[in-house]
Amino acid sequence: MTSTRPYPAALAYEALLDPAHRHDPYPCFAELAAEPIQRIGEHRWVVSRHADITALLRDPRLSAQDELEGDPPPGSDGRPFRGPFLKVDPPHHDTLREQAMHQFMPRVLGLGPRIEAMVGALLDRHRSTGPGELDVVTALAYPLPVAVICELLGVPAEEEPVFHSFAERLTRALDPVETLSAQERADLQGTLADWRAYLLPMIAQRHDRPGPDLVSGLLTAGDPETRMNTVELASTLGLLLIAGHETTVNLIANGTLALLRHPEVLDRLRADPGLAPAVVEEVLRYDPPVQLTARRATADLRVAGRVVPAGDDVLLLLAAGNRDPRRFADPDRFWPQRPGNAHLAFGGGVHYCFGAALARMEGQAALSAIATRLANPRLAVDPPPYRANMLLRGPARLRIAFDAVTG
Residues of the chain whose pLDDT is less than 70? Predict the structure, then answer.
């Protein structure tokens, strides 16, 4: 890791990147939030205040554009490639996102009962009349979102392990580059090539024989002149896999951990499953699956009295903004009844999380089932071990004990 010690806040940022603090990064966030905006390098800044982050997420002078541009990858059909839209600015971002949303949202809105059935089936595998243990990550948090994504894409159930593997490998691409070794960066390039090689035959098959699935819809709907090319489609599907899978894994695991550390909230949710939406929103604020997001200034801009020069990188500390005492009363308290919970977990502006509605549905179904179907659930290990990922933060395993799986 490159040291940036001439800048005092860089020490707290380096500590935030250190896996030793993965189980509790919030003291690091609090230190970085000592000032609304601070330098952590010659051309890098961190912003921590809720109001500033909210404004900057909507500011067109901050770019999400990936600077790594070049020739279109093989199989792109020759048209310019600028995806995925998470790393693309308007107007091309808007074209790609509109196409994806038009196909994605109608398929998602009716999935509630199906997701609840999937959660029930996963817990039924552990049904017993006596005490037992399960790992929430491997038993529920991982298999649920990958099954949902595969169903949306029309991928057969036997292919789910392949998607699971790709999700784990692709997720590291979103972490700050300074946390990746040269070998990890090389491995990611190989993973991206493997992902395209895996998807291109599927895309070709759906092009020739379209069905009711999301891939077919993206291939056939809309104007052929502006329709995603094959590599943009592959990148969009990779984004769906990461955003629709890894974030939900962390939401479910972080939510379970919060509930079991706050048994009074667990008891209220068990007595009133209608509290699930508020519980999920508070998990998203209190321990968000996505901890920060990065932008680049395309013009000089003023933030909290400081001038950020054009070309500098700006890290928006979503997790710090979610605990900003100027915006949230008693911000370190886990309180689902919190009024006006305008958290930053899904970002904001044109890049507001594409899969937010689906993540909420899956989180509500999973946490409701944990509360209502597990008798006397409790943590077997606390704190649990965490994965290396800093940006998409969550437990690697979350073992819980219970007296029985009911229902």
Answer: 1-5, 66-84, 129, 173-175, 177-179
- Starting at the edge strand that comes first in sequence, how are the strands of the sheet with 313-316 ordered? 37-41, 44-47, 313-316, 293-297, 62-63
What CA–CA distance (Å, rounded) separates 214 from 222? 13
DSSP conformational letter for 67: S
The CATH number of the domain where 311 resides is what?
Answer: 1.10.630.10
Q: By residue range, what is the domain housing residue 188? A: 9-67+84-405
CA distance 348 to 354: 10
What value does the CA radius of gyration of the chain take, rounded to a whole number of Å? 21
**Do the Cβ atoms of 185 and 177 come closer than 8 Å?**
yes
In a domain, 188, yes or no: yes
Tally of domains within the chain: 1
**Tens digits of residue pLDDT in 297-338:** 999 999 999 999 999 999 999 999 999 999 999 999 999 999
Secondary structure letter of residue 313 according to DSSP: E
pTM: 0.90
The pair of structure tokens assigned to 48 is 């921590």
* pLDDT recorded at residue 82: 53
Please check whether residue 355 lies inside any domain of the structure.
yes
Residue 72 domain flag: no
- Whether residue 244 is contained in a domain is answered as yes
Question: 362: exposed, middle or buried (C-beta count within 10 Å: 0-12, 13-18, 19+)?
Answer: buried
Residues 6 or more apart from 283 whose CB is under 8 A from it? 251, 254, 255, 258, 363, 367
pLDDT at 389: 86
